[in-house]
Amino acid sequence: MYPVLLGINGMGYGDFTECYLEVLPRLMNMVERGVLENRRPQYPDKSWWSILNMEPDPTPTGDPSSTLLVKLTKATLVNIPVVNPTYGAYSIRLDATTPYDDEVNGVVNTIIKSAGKSPVIASITAPDRFLHSNGSIKCSVYRAIDNAIGQLLNSGLSSFIIFSPYGEPISPGEGEHEDYGIYIATISRPRHYDTVKLYEVGILFRDLTESVQSSGP
Amino acid sequence: MASNGADRDPEIDRLLEAKARELTKKMKYSGVVELSKENFDDFLKTFRVAVVDFWATWCAPCFMLEPIIKRLALEMPDVGFGRLNTEEEPEIAAKYYVMSLPTVIIFKDGEPVDQVVGVVPKKILQDRIKAYLED
């Protein structure tokens, strides 16, 4: 499988133990782990434009497939929340109409189908769509994501960056999240004693894709 | 029957005032206190048993431990709970030989008596803290 960049909007490390996750905590001990930093206010479109353009303060472009990261990696886009409905091979409306488990399964199945042919850049928006207004389902959402990542690993995924562009929702306000998200990857973060900045995720994925393609997928 | 001022025992008044001062100070440090060199020593002096979580923004397990510390702070009101960002206050971290993160140090009467390195279940941390409340 080609490398996968999977962003989970609004997920934080805080409830990994509370929600009794199995895959992600084990994965943290096996590959590189770190903290992604993105200060408030954080919005899904602005955050993802930053990743796709590999710039801290990006100018949104009309077509996500023509962004620098996609041109460099030739990646397939899946459910990217730069527009509403999301952009890519799998797409949903950015509201509560798609249940969280439907989205998680849809994204994972699309990744598995696509990553045999090209690198994949994908997003799961469920924590951001549901947890601003209903924190009581957090563990159900987290477990669905945890199971899905286990499914991805079982399907042969070995090169990846799993991250959250920002942390957990902290209020009903759309741009209000913790400033710190997750970073679990098979590529080292740029500096050991520092957080990973949002725009660096794109650069890291380009480097990961180049290193895998130079040695064969 | 209500007592008037003349009947009040000055010793009891003194004790009540001291207790009120102590409670006011503890209220200042309720929840999980963000510690710095400005309040670190005063925080330790305020509580017979105090717990300090040494962390840094780049440390992923530190974020896993944070909600455990917050819950313990709610469940153990007699214990002071604080967090110290080791990037902002490296001198304090060095003073207590904090080499790995997260490190939780339990203080009794202002002195370090125990430490836990890494993320551990809430029960384990709670039991370690309780041991210093009982003796």
Describe this structure in words.
- The complex is a heterodimer of chains A (217) and B (135).
- Chain A has 7 helices and 7 strands.
- Chain A has a single domain (4-214), classed as Alkaline Phosphatase, subunit A, CATH 3.40.720.
- Chain A is an alpha/beta fold.
- Chain A has helices spanning 23-30, 44-53, 68-73, 100-114, 126-130, 138-154, 198-214, and strands at residues 4-8, 32-37, 76-78, 120-124, 160-163, 180-185, 196-197.
- Chain A has a 7-stranded mixed beta sheet, with helices on both faces.
- The relative contact order of chain A is 0.27.
- In chain A, helix 2 (44-53) crosses helix 7 (198-214).
- Chain A starts with a strand and ends with a helix.
- Chain B has 135 residues and is of the alpha/beta class.
- Helix content of chain B is 45%, strand content 22%.
- Chain B contains 5 helices and 5 strands; from the N terminus they run H-E-H-E-H-E-H-E-E-H.
- A 5-stranded mixed beta sheet of chain B has the order 1-3-2-4-5, with helices on both faces.
- In chain B, strand 2, helix 3 (60-75) and strand 3 form a beta-alpha-beta unit.
- The A-B interface holds A 12-18, 25, 28, 33-35, 37, 180, 182-183, 191-195 and B 56-61, 63-64, 66-68, 87, 119, 121.
